[in-house]
Amino acid sequence: MYSQAKVIAGGLAHIPVVIAVFYFILTTFNKRALKFLEEAKTKKPEPKAVEPKKVAISKTEAPKTEAPKVVKKKHADVPVNIYRPKTPYEGTVIGNYSLLKEGAIGRVNHITFDLKDSDPFLNYVEGQSIGIMPAGEDANGKPHKLRLYSIASTRHGDDFNGNTVSLCVRQLQYEKDGETINGVCSTYLCDIKPGDKVKITGPVGKEMLLPDEEDANIVMLATGTGIAPMRAYLRRMFEPTEKEKNKWNFKGKAWLFMGAPKSANLLYEEDLQRYLTDNPDNFKYTKAISREQQNTKGGRMYIQDRVLESANELFNMIEDEKTHIYLCGLKGMEPGIDEAMTKAAEEKGLNWSELRPQLKKSGRWHVETY
Q1: Residue 328 annotated to the active site
Q2: How far apart (Å, rounded) are the C-alpha atoms in residues 335 and 91?
Q3: Which carries the bigger pLDDT value, residue 126 or residue 70?
Q4: Labelling 334: which of 10, 213, 288, 342 has CA 20 to 30 A away?
């Protein structure tokens, strides 16, 4: 028989062994638990098989195939803000002449600036704008704010040497309290003379750029000086020297809708008529002269009336994914164009309120109004 003291002593002697075994079991469990958690974090769940939805198709209607989505292209190589308002480039005026014929309303000039001394060089592409900082100060003694103008020349300039930029500027005039007010910057530009220095910023803008594809179709809707970017497009498309320099041979259809109050107010008319003669299969020119022509209702003929007249042919082009539409001119032209497009679309069984956002998203609807 063991004494009680011996039993207690023997039991105490085994306590370290029990503690060691318990610690080993606990450590092993913790390691395995941590390993399991790490594997659970990194292991990706297997995708569940999804049963394809069944679409009911009537016997008389064939299944519709969804048209491929057109992805809007990015223009990564387009120059932007080479010159800013705090550090403008002082360009020299090398030309300034009127674009209007006798009997025209208002004052519209074609103005060209020399860029060859700019460093860094002020290069641009068709569809962009530049800023002009008019000389002088406002009523508060501060320098006049810059105004943006659409560029009316191609990247190679009017002389094709690549050292100039041109603008098409209408002098702004309006009545206030019985007094005629002249626009600050537009009057400044119309009055400048060859040899004068002008502060220029930019270029800016990627909204009105031409597509790269040679077989694209280009629909242009312009009023007044909204012809500026369209003139650049058409020169790029149809001027032989431009085509040679660009190695870009336009093969699509170009259609210009041009709005003006009088025939004498039509801008760059000689060039446009030449393009028509030389490119009858690629260029169409439709004029809306409000004070000389009447629409079907006996009212003045506006650009939206011409759009309605050509609804079927126009929307045949728009349904082609290669067609781009460009709208430029006074902001007041937008509602009329939108209404005309709505009616024209209805005649083709289309919904313009749905179609326009799709065109915009795919980069085929370009608007620059002011």
Answers
A1: yes
A2: 37
A3: 126
A4: 213
